[in-house]
Amino acid sequence: MGESVNVQARLRAAVGAVAVIAILFQAMAVVVPEGQAVLVTRFGRPLRAATSSGLHWKLPWPIDQAVTLDMRRRIYETGHTEMLTRDKKNVIARTFVVWRIADPILFVQSLGTGSGADGKLDGLLTNAAIGTLGGHDLSALVSTNPGDLQVDQIEKELLASAQSTARQNYGVALDQVRLERIALPEENVMAVLQQMRAERRQFAAKYDAEGEREASRIRSEADLEAARIVAKGAEEEARIRGASSAQVAKIYATAHRVNPELYKFTRSLESLDRLVTSSTSLILRTDSEPFSVLQQKP
Amino acid sequence: MRRQGPPSEIRRLATPIARVVDAAWQRMHWWIALMVMLYALSGITVVRSDEIAVVQRWGRLVGATPALQEHGPGLLFAFPRPIDRVIRVQARRIAEVTITALNDQAPSQGETGYYATLDPLMQGYALTGDQNVVHTQMVARYRIRDVAEWAFYGPPSDDVVRVEVSAAMVRSLGEMGVDRVLSDGRKDLIALAARRAQAGLDAAHAGIELTSLELTRLAPPAAAAFEFEAVQSAYISADTKKKEAQAYAEMVIPQAQARANARVQAAEAETAANLAAANGDASAFAALEREYRANPAVVRERLYRDAIDRALNVAKVRWIPPPTGGRYSGLRIILSSPAAGPTRARAAEQDAEKESEEN
Predict the structure, then answer these.
(1) Total-model pTM
(2) In this structure, are B190 and B81 located in the same domain?
(3) Which of B121, B176, B223 sits opposite A144 (nearest CB)?
(4) pLDDT in tens, B228-285
(5) Residue B276 lies in a domain
(6) Number of domains, chain B
(7) Which CATH superfamily is domain A74-184 in?
(8) Total H helices, total E strands in chain B
(9) B241, B305, B313: which to substitute to probe chain A, counting the most A Cβ within 10 Å?
């Protein structure tokens, strides 16, 4: 019986201790997760910011209160803003910024815990964009000449221009400012479209002319090459015929040299064969050979 | 011996709680033990095959490096809440974002799509390096590369991918000419924009890897579409003309080669024939000469008579009587055309006969 009472007493003490510890832990412990910060206020006055993750402590309510802040990076996109470049061209730009809370106390004091940062950043970035782009030509933003482009430089200037104000006034760190869009005012786009159409028509005419020219060149070259080939063939033919004639002449000369008189005689007879054809008319006297044979006695 | 005094106020207040605890323990001690055990084991987590898990202990990430922080599929032993918190992420899943900020609705069928201008606030477009206008729509696919960075430090994934890819595309288009962009430069454009977008994501500590970037639309504005198509047609037409000319060249040159070859071959054939004939003639002449040397008069006479015979056989021969007194008087011979020939020739013969009779 006495042992049972002892167990009960120890159990009661353990349950009581656990309950007290749990209540104290709940009231005083502040768990700061990764990517978040906790701002501890004492009677409403910011006391300290717990920015490192882990277990932190505070006095129980109502003395201290913990306000959790999201320390992750966030994106803010500005509106479209029309501005003038250094070469007096109107351009519409839109930027975005990657930002995070760098000083939780200053952030809460200047902007609260809600989305008050958006409006401040919009003004800050728009102002920076107007100032920065005013110092550069339009070709620094869009150009086919790599030497003209200065987008990296412009984005660095934008970041530098807004960075210090954001940090000092709002406790906000800007990690990145980039140009999300570059456009032209509506009235300028009309001129650009007209220019594009004119340029396309010019290109079409150019392609047409180039096609004609190239086709003509190919045909002419082909004709020339063909003529050259035929001429070369004719030359070769003449050479072969010439060599052949020389060789034939040599054969005949070698043969006829043995008896030029006989050659002359046979050649005369051959000429006669060639000259006398079916259309040749010969007028002979009846007393000439071979007709005269009929009149001669044996 | 302890003196039993009156119960204190605390004891008096604690008595009902103690009774509840006692009663609960007596009736449900097994259940309570089971609940405590289940709580102790509640930190054990199953990480599925497509997941990666990280553990936060009192809010702090466990592990100094990504390799130690990230836990792959399987059982993960952790303490119960609020000590540990296990965050599971579908890190191998490919997410997709469609970026329409630089696009304008393509004209539907039946619409002319001809706008005199474009309102930059209502109609998305980008400027090329030669200050022309193009519309583009993209699809970016990404996955989580660094779970801790993505979960605890990075900006919202879809938003950061959308703005970084848009900015990268605006910049990349801004340094290329419209002709290159719309023709052979498309691949370079995508590669350049993807590289820049990834650099931006890294600078934003997004913990994201861009796996692919696709252009689902890249087109000139509707107002200039007809002219762009005309250029395309002209280009194709010019190419066709060139190909036709090349076909002509491919026909003409072999034909010329064939003609030249034919002439050369004909000359060679003729040469062979001439040489053969010359050799034959030379041999014949040599044989004749041998005979001639033995009997010159006979051979000469035979050759002469053979030639005369051949001539008389071939030609038209007109015989006339020998002249009287050494000369012809009034002899008239008419050699006419083949049509009238025989008649007139006969007339000539008759004239000659008549004259002979008179004489």
Answers:
(1) 0.69
(2) no
(3) B176
(4) 889 889 989 999 999 999 999 999 999 999 999 999 999 999 999 999 999 998 999 9
(5) no
(6) 3
(7) Band 7 domain (3.30.479.30)
(8) 9, 10
(9) B241
